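Re: How this chain folds, sequence and tokenised backbone to follow
Notation: Tokens come from a learned vocabulary of local backbone shapes, not from coordinates.
Start of record: The labelled sequence and token lines come straight after this line.
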Amino acid sequence: MPLELRYRDGVFAVDSTRGRTGARAAPLRAVEAPTAAALLADWRDAGRRIARVRRLQGALLGGLGVAGIGGSAATLQLGVGGEGAVVALLSVLLAAAVGVWASLGRALSRAIGALELSAGLLADLAATDPLTELPNHRAFHERLLQEVALAERSGRPLSLVLLDLDHFKRINDSFGHPAGDAVVTEVARRLASCARRGEVVARVGGEEFGWLLPGADAMDAWQAAERARVEVSATPLLSYGSLTISAGVCELSQAGGAGELHRLADGALYWAKAHGRDRCIRYSPEVVEELSAGERAARLEHQQALNAVHALARAVDAKDPYTQRHSERVADIAVRLALELGWPAERLRELREAAVLHDVGKIAVPDAILTKPGALTPDEFALVREHPARGAEIVAEALTPEQASWVRGHHERVDGGGYPDGIAGDAIPDGARVMALADAWDAMTSDRPYRAGLAARRALDICRAEAGAQFAPEVVDALQALWEQSAIPHSLPAVPEDDPDLAQELQYRGAGAVPVARRERRPAAGPGLVYRGLRVPDEDVPEA
């Protein structure tokens, strides 16, 4: 049974005895805030007290009526001589009744006051998020309607900011929901600290917050959202590391009412999430594309399909510790090359999506082949050569046909000696030509079980020597430009000067590995093609 909530000097206290030892003698323990159960118990108790006072008042009035009738009858029976005694008795009874009535009135006032206080506290609880103690979704939208009406009457500006934590699901998945609750609480505290007097920060969803800024135009609101974004991301959240937040901003002057203001701010938030996260987007018809519910659902379905394929790509990278995060590095290099080549932003985004998934077809290649430290047999290498075609089939549902062609063609060679289709020159899609060099660069400069990574300068020399043969000349030129701009690392592990083409003695997964000369890894590759499509010249390339 819930404990009784009582109030003394504005302090919430709980009567753990439910008054069994007397209202005044009952031990009280203070609590920081009322609970819904205690408030409901107090509400019901106040209602019972009011009903009891009403019954007593009715009984008192009934008693007075009976006394009056009895006094009249006694007067008639006693005559004139006994009239004085009857009047005196009735006066005493009436005085007592007035005193009792006053006492009951005070009790009734206390009960009504307790009822009103409980009602107010219950209303506050109903409008407050119990985790963050911020206004909840319902309270926020009620306040939004009020502020919009006030802004329209007064002509002052009003802006709305919607904020959403980025990749919050990872916190719940990695650390559990209690950790997620702790993060949400901390973020709420930081956001509330950024708000000025009169502004409202509310929790309107699981990891989504709303921020009403009366008197602020769109630029003021954007600057406030930027401060909040930095406040959230600048300092690690408890022990769970840094977390970023995205925000969408809209001003009432751009909307026709409360509903449209929320919809446009939500559209700006969606745009921020879809274009990299960790940013604040101010709504503008020229920047933010308004999407219907159907269009959003289609994009969400596409994103979910893309996430599933990304999971496969991560699984491929995780098969071998030497290739972990290989796909992300290839995507980063590919985007830098394409940017140097003048690609527009939309195609850069498409290239990154495809490059991250370029090796997803290796999910069909046995681990024993992918991680084999010795030379591959012809049959094993034939299986490896199938992965671009398999990858294109896997990504076909998540990517555009052009992006799938980039995945399929990222092991083609400009001279026609690549795979799986053996196409040459401009017949190779431009994205595939960029990804081919990015993939080869990361393969050359990263450590593998059978060799240490090449020095970056050595890898650059090989790429220049292969321009027009394995690699597209214009992409190699872009790589050279990035090198000169120091946009790619210059200091990667160097190879010995005496024989850079031979593998080094190494430890592989904690055990000694037999050195294997890379020239021994050619049985299925043809002249000059060393391993999985990466060609190293027979003769050393002189250092420039």
Observations:
- The chain is about 50% helix and 10% strand.
- The first strand starts at residue 4 and ends at 8.
- Confidence is low (pLDDT under 50) at residues 17-26, 491-544.
